[in-house]
Amino acid sequence: MSVFKADILVLGSGVAGLSIAIKSATALPQKRIIVATKANESESNTKYAQGGIAAVWDKLDSFQDHIDDTMVAGDHLNKPEIVKMVVEEAPACMKRLIEWGTDFDHNTEGEIDLGMEGGHSANRILHFKDITGFEVEKTLLEQVDKLPNIEILPYHFAIDLITDHHLGKKIDSSDISCYGAYILNQKTNKIETFLASSVILATGGIGQVYAATTNPVIATGDGIAMAYRAKARIIDMEFVQFHPTALYQPGVSPSFLISEAVRGFGAYLRNKAGTRFMLDIDERAELAPRDVVSRAINKELIFSGDPHVYLDCSHLDMTEFKKHFPNIYDKCKNLGIDPSFQMIPVVPAAHYLMGGIEVDENGYSSIGNLFACGECSRTGLHGANRLASNSLLEALVFGHKIAEEIIQNRSDLKFTFEDIIPEWDEEGTMVPKENVLISHNRKTIQNIMSDLVSIVRSDERLEKALDHLNYLFQDTEKAYEKSKLSPQICELRNLNAIAYLIVNQSIKRRDNKGAFYSLDNL
Ligand code: FAD
Ligand code: SIN
Question: Structure pTM?
Fold first, then answer.
């Protein structure tokens, strides 16, 4: 039996998971911290973040303005005390990142260069060119390398949380505790038992539940689905953010993002006729919050029947543009689009989930010993729609809070249950003869969600989606029961659960708020 014990078990190696591991390992050098992650250690949504991280840095900016912008973008469904806490902690988090080695761009006066994005009333985005996430992920992994009490286990796919349910205890959902996770070691193909007194889900987003998304293939909502099966409280799943400007490239998935910072730099959205349609929609025009811009593009596309709108950068200073957005510029040039005189075709794509595993101000979920951090969590910061560049920030602030909580109140916890945790039972399971059945169901879920549960919803579309998903659920569960587990079948099962949660919670929402918009609530 392969049983591994740690003091802290972190699932996921994006900004949320790594920042918790680094802070805890530094303060608790005698404690063992395991970070299990399903792909190579850098693969994550974090790595692809472009625009940057929001924080009040300029003397002329204020906490109150960042708070107000966050609440307005979130359609006031945010938790005000959480918004205040995150905004006030932001500058300290940025200083910590800089101490850890993150390089942010500087202006000619030697000050940190602050970018602008939609919904912000001031320049407050710290960034590294248009590859901020890559820089942050690299820095965090370099710090992890220096800490001998952190073990990173790449290609370790978490299948399910270990809770009282696995100990055969029948327990009320308000009293359930988590003791670790069953994890598929993808190198040996064995399912191993990992036990820890503190378990953290930092498994990221859900973009892959949609056919068109900016999220990489790892973003299949595994942590939220695991927590849901373990009976944690999962809320606000109806609030999915669609980024207005993903590059239009039919058949290419994930979609390449054209950062909102490009609009912050002055780019215009135009339809095929060349009209700047955002001017008629919102006084903030291209820099209105994302839900407003995505809905406006959606309306344009429905009216015109065109497959995309355009982002026009031709009036911008191209020398500065290339300096700020080298990655985006190169991508366009490689596709034969020269932004200095050609418009970039763009469409909205699923980008971010505001909902997820409900946590309190210290990152505790509704299950004992279980924290959630980053995109898989629902802290109350974003309300019904996230303000641009508040996501990396949320993960860093809550990562800090969770590490503090563990250091101060949980570092002396001991295991008492090691003899009674059962091994994963694989008896009677077989290697599926044809994987096409799994990939077909995955594509079907993605198409159902993109066609029926997208920027604009209706009761009829949601009911139809639910019918389809119910059928897929039965089919997937049958396959899961008899299959030797693989990441593919587990991801399919998780995507099915995520799609169900989004549809079910959408059906229950009877008012249009932020990113949620139904024709039947008008
Ligand atoms: P992730 O970074 O996604 O990490 C999740 C980790 O969990 C990964 O390592 C993954 O492999 C692992 N994992 C998942 N499932 C399992 C499993 N079953 N077992 C083991 N491991 C698992 N936000 C901003 O604030 N600013 C930006 O500029 C910005 N730009 C973005 C651009 C793009 C293209 C995208 C996609 C997102 C962007 N975001 C941005 C959003 C932001 O990047 C994410 O919300 C944030 O990085 C999430 O961090 P995380 O640590 O929660 O999750
Ligand atoms: C972007 O660069 O447009 C993404 C920023 C974000 O998701 O916050």
Answer: 0.98
